[in-house]
Design brief:
binds iron/sulfur cluster, Fumarate Reductase Iron-sulfur Protein, Chain B, domain 2
Length: about 190
Amino acid sequence: MTESSQTIMPQSQLAEAVLSESGQNVNLCYQCMKCAAGCPISYEMDYKPAQLIHAIRLGMDDLVLNSKTMWLCASCETCTTRCPQEVDVAKVMDAVKITALRRGIKPAIPQIASFYRAALANIKKCGRMYELGMIVGLKMRTFEFFKDAGLGMKMFKKGKLKMIPSLTGALRTWSIFSRVKSIEKKNGAHDVK
Ligand code: SF4
Ligand code: SF4
């Protein structure tokens, strides 16, 4: 954290929420656009990462929380690496998603939110990604039962989709989930659905 981060504090409620969820102070951003220039997905985003950061600072809740940008973010951290102000933009993207869900705002790209939920539920249950279980969980959420069926079949034939999950290391993962839950409980945060 740079020295200036101790003095420039968030003024919008949304910036405060982002700070609380991610530890990132968006007021450090001076709009150099390095994050946007390096982002491999920015061409598909409705607002570039730097624009979203600016809108958070301005407290434009509706624009930010209904944006597609954070749902399209691939968490590649290119923006984070490039930012001269050490703003972890990838963490800001996560914080904005969490804030939107906490406020009951429907994700702008529901299929991506469904993927996150299916993947997380799967890891929570099996201790690591069990691809076949994740695919079933995703289909149950999206009702797109035949989408990518051909691709799935090809993977299955090549032995890429295991019939039975491996629980190796599951205890460790379960203990991480349990620790996170107790930290959230201590901080008064409720689960995002
Ligand atoms: S982490 Fe997200 S916003 Fe940042 S460069 Fe990668 S895709 Fe773009
Ligand atoms: S790279 Fe950092 S300082 Fe530059 S626009 Fe992005 S968040 Fe702001």
